[in-house]
Write a structure and sequence with these properties.
Length: 319
């Protein structure tokens, strides 16, 4: 299969066919209609074989995950996901693999109301790069730079499941049968909190998604906002699957540093806390207050009740 046949067969109709795409796949570039009164939000994520995924990964799951992790970045900024571009480097053309990958990508793009509008294919070591583009009302994008001293710190969902799912894939742990499916689902098929991210536009002072571990990722907010934070680790939400499968110490380490949860981490001023539960309740996603923003720039204090916790692990870093 040649490059252009590959594109036409696997990707030409990937995702939801949106009316705001004037020109999609097939030209030198895409032509898009950005709604009046909106800002364009753009994010890029790469996944490299051997670094982000194993050679024997289910290609359908890989297609899903590539879309979800990019859309998660848009969700963290309160944006509506719209358009995707794919950079695909392949060592050779494997039609069975490509078909499954494209199906996973297309199904997930459709779920998030996105259309694949173009990209590039080349020959080389297997790597996947996606550029996701979305829209947000002008001036309403959430960033990492708005946290203020006294704000409350929240996280959605539960943390640590994906990291334990990875250990399960690597045969590093044994997990009871009743928890295996949940943990593998969380690792292979993450969920982007899109609707909740958009709801946070009127509440949150800063936000980001947790991709490399809470203990490391929170420093992005602290640096951009020029603040510190105090977290009570006993409040960090963990699933029953995680608590049943690990010692308390290991569960905490996975929740703090495991990564790949793609939950939202955000701050809320005290004046808006009262409206938080009411506004977010329709989305069916647990939201937990885990601490507060403090005044010592860049300083992260981890407490367990009233005791300070000495903790060295900061999460995943590429270099």
């Amino acid at each position: 299969m040649g490059e252009f046949e590959l594109i036409q067969r696997c990707f030409a109709q990937a995702g939801r066919q949106r009316p705001d795409v004037t020109v999609g796949i097939g030209d030198d570039g895409a032509v898009l209609q950005v709604r009046e009164g909106c800002d364009l939000v753009v994010t890029t994520d790469s996944m490299i074989e051997g670094t982000h995924f194993f050679p024997d990964v289910d290609p359908r799951a890989l297609g899903h995950k590539l879309v979800a992790v990019n859309v998660s970045d848009l969700a963290a900024m309160g944006a509506e996901p719209c358009w995707l571009s794919l950079g695909l480097t392949l060592p050779h053309v494997d039609e069975t693999w490509l078909t499954a990958f494209a199906e996973g990508l297309s199904e997930t793009a459709d779920y998030y109301n996105c259309q694949l509008i173009g990209g590039d294919t080349t020959k080389g070591p297997l790597s996947l790069t996606m550029i996701a583009k979305g829209q947000v009302p002008k001036g309403k994008a959430l960033t990492r730079a708005g946290a203020k001293v006294g704000d409350y710190l929240y996280v959605t969902g539960t943390l640590g499941d994906a990291a334990l799912g990875l250990k399960l894939v690597q045969n590093q742990v044994e997990v009871s049968k009743k928890h295996r499916a949940h943990l593998l689902q969380r690792f292979h098929y993450p969920t982007a909190r899109v609707a909740l991210g958009q709801a946070l536009r009127t509440i949150a002072s800063s936000a980001m998604d947790v991709s490399d571990g809470l203990a490391g990722d929170i420093h992005h907010i602290l640096r951009r906002s020029g603040v510190g934070a105090s977290i009570d680790v006993s409040r960090i939400p963990m699933s029953q699957a995680l608590k049943d499968s690990c010692s308390p110490e290991q569960a905490l380490q996975l929740a703090l540093s495991g990564g790949e949860d793609y939950e939202l981490l955000f701050t809320v001023p005290e004046i808006r806390r009262s409206s938080l539960d009411v506004l977010l309740s329709p989305y069916g996603v647990p939201v937990t207050c885990i601490g507060r923003i403090t005044g010592v720039a860049g300083k992260l204090e981890l407490k367990q009740g009233e005791s300070l916790l000495q903790y060295q692990h900061k999460g995943f870093e590429h270099f």
